[in-house]
Amino acid sequence: TAESAVPEQMLGFTAVAASSGDAVVVPAGYVATAFLPWGEPINAQAPAWKPDASNTAADQEQQVGDNHDGIHYFGFNAAGNGPGDRSDEGLLVFNHEYINPEYFYAPDTDAQDWRLPFTLEKARKGQAGHGVTVAHIRRKADGSWEHVKNSPYNRRIHGNTPIAIQGPAAGHPLMKTAADPTGTEVLGTLNNCGNGWTPWGTYLTCEENFNGYFGWNGEHTQTVLEKRYGITQDGFGYLWHTVDSRFDVNANPNEPHRFGWIVEIDPFSPTSKPVKRTALGRFKHENAALSIAPNGKVVVYMGCDERNEYIYKFVSSGTFDAANPYSAANRRLLEEGTLYVARFDAGATPADKMGTGVWIPLLPSTVGVDGRALRNNPHFAASSDAEVRALILIKARQAADAVGATMMDRPEWVAVNPKNPGNVYVTLTNNSRRGGTTSNSPDGTTTAGSARPPVDEANPRANNVWGHIIRWTEAGNDPTATTFNWDIFVLAGQPSVVGERAPSSNINANNLFNSPDGLAFDSFGRLWIQTDGSFSNSGDYAGMGNNQMLAADPTTKEIRRFLVGPSGCEVTGVTWTPDRKTMFVNIQHPGELGSHPNRPKNPDGSTFSDNQIARNPTAFSQWPNAGQRPRSATVVVRRLDGGVIGG
Ligand code: FEO
Ligand code: CA
Ligand code: CA
Ligand code: CA
Hints:
By secondary structure, the chain is mainly beta.
């Protein structure tokens, strides 16, 4: 055929222009279709989505959640009863990071705020809008995809689903609550941001800004640990703590310790209980990128997304049995291992934006920058090394502070190059608190929130408004190595800007973007970059348009825009069928107004409040359905000629 006569290109598509419209834009020859939006019934029995947002909490538990994020396609095997490599039928598993209350709730009356009255029913509906969806999907004869609504694999995991707590921190006193006196089971997973997937057929969902759901009623003095993880009186303003005591830290001081983990889910076992894997540490997890080392160890790379936080990796104790990928032993590989944190050094040549690095193990015996071993640091004081280890994992950020890890410009997604398991990329999305003189201190007195570190070679711009992507190669290309070499793949920005703020030379007028966030390689070795930044299209952001997705050649560093999202959205999460002929991309929070310059105005010139948006949900974005409130959704991207995506 004509298709097979043309070899696959690294960037074999025509770039699309920046745009600020209310639609998904893809290159000529491609088609993009919204699929499985917020509120879609999860199976044939589930209630229909109500366009006025009047569905109940019980309804939402049986419907696709809100704010789609990380995603993975798991093909079925030939028998259709387990994981395999089929590109025509599989399980699409995806995260629901948060909710947009201004679109998620129906105001009770035209005069009322979504907050009034705030009830346990509303909190439960919000909790049900979070978590993970497992959807059985099938390709039709015309190449489009359908949801198999009568399949037993369809499943929602949400903010009240029972989840096991496993690993070194399970059962620690800080993990115990009145409802769970053993510290081994928690209700729910929240703020499910990026994801990972394993070669043994499981999905990893990553809990990011869990702090925002907690608050306190009455008097409370914030502890050092609460401060380090950002637990505040009112959190995101979701009000759950006012009606559900689980989220009131005065009533349940340990409940926040049970969030901020990576959760492993077996999508092929619909009744299986998800598991929080505490060996991978507790922080604001973005995603989880797996690499199998030559010696069989499983390495998981992870970023903690907040200004001036760290990059971590987990190295398993056990080894992967490649001959029996779905073996019971492989499925236990995330139970035990060593957590490391990264330090990026300048290397032999100053100011060349390249350098060397060290992975510092977070163990009781590791000596911090203050000269004390972690077992002698008061944050981790305990009677046994086993308990010191549990504390190091629960307070991973403080352990990283103590050992002098490098504060980064907001680590978002990590991606491993499939052509070299020791070659790893991470997005550093932006950082408004870079360019000062204060760093996180090992005693917890100065921490994220007040720190403003100086520029360094790996984070070279003060007030980094556009973000960058850094990459490293582990010594000997071995993911378990404890040293690496790094360089900067791209500094985003404006080509007209020179000097300290200048972008790298692979940025030009045709590929402007800001705030790289989602990041993934396809199996061909193409690097896909997704953005979550300013869509004002003016000032520093002129010419960038809406949030978007670009493809890059990791060798030449060429970057080309592939997709632009609708108004107000972020583009986050991507996966492919094994044949690379279908790509699934998530469009998150279309219509989220934030500081958008086109935010609807009242006749007196004042901007719309959240309450006014709730009453006028089609005032701005109406994606994906004209005349309806905006809904996060997956987008199915195909080529009209049936070819591979991007090639
Ligand atoms: Fe959920 Fe850091 O993005
Ligand atoms: Ca250097
Ligand atoms: Ca993100
Ligand atoms: Ca982001």
